Amino acid sequence: MSVQLLRHKFTVEHYHKMIESGILNKYDRVELIRGEIVEMAAIGTKHAGCVNRLINLLIQILGKRMILSPQNPVVLNDNSEPQPDIALLQPREDFYSSAHPQPKDIFLIIEVADSTVKYDREVKVPLYAQAGVVEVWLIDINEQWVEVFREPAKDRYKSVEKLNRGESLSIQAFADVNITVDDVLGNS
Asked: Is residue 20 part of a domain?
């Protein structure tokens, strides 16, 4: 005889009420994924260095053409509010202080991974596709490559390209800007 376990799925609204009431606080490293509160992996030095390098690089090359949002929430739907490592957003006067960005506001999401590559590829990337995020980069700092996902269709991307050191890539919304994988990964 098998036992059916019941799970309570949270909405973004419930999740925010948990934060407002103090059940969750700013020190909890969690995000809401498909109605479940998921603990995020600790950020190691290589991961932090890559995110810092990307922040510096993207601000230098794109300036005020976008808002760079590092490790902040994006609302994908009623039950998912992940915190990608970097989101490049449409410029907005209020800098999203009145509401978290939604898929229509996002130029690019970047996930940097060392221990979470499989989770990011199998859970988060399909979630971004399902929400209609136009472009996602998955950076594997251990294997030293960047995987570029474009053309969302249901829960996958039609276009997937894996780029290695020595190769160049561009951001779909800023086709005039070229970045090398070496720029993204640094000298390590």
From this structure: no
Provide the domain limits for residue 101: 42-185
Query: What is the amino acid identity at position 140?
Result: D
State how many domains the chain has: 1
- Return all residues near 42 (Cβ < 8 A) that are at least 6 apart: 29
CA torsion sign for 94, 107, 54, 129 is positive
Residue 112 belongs to domain with CATH number: 3.90.1570.10
- In this structure, is residue 7 part of a structural domain? no
Quick check: is 30 in a domain? no
Reported as a single tens digit per residue, the pLDDT across 82-120 is 999 999 999 999 999 999 999 999 999 999 999 899 999
Classify residue 183 by its DSSP letter. Answer: H
Q: Is there a contact between 168 and 178 (Cβ–Cβ < 8 Å)?
A: yes
Q: Report yes or no on whether pTM surpasses 0.85.
A: yes
For strands 174-180 and 168-171, give the pairing.
Answer: antiparallel
* In the chain, beta strands by DSSP E: 30-33, 36-39, 67-70, 86-89, 106-113, 135-140, 145-153, 156-164, 168-171, 174-180
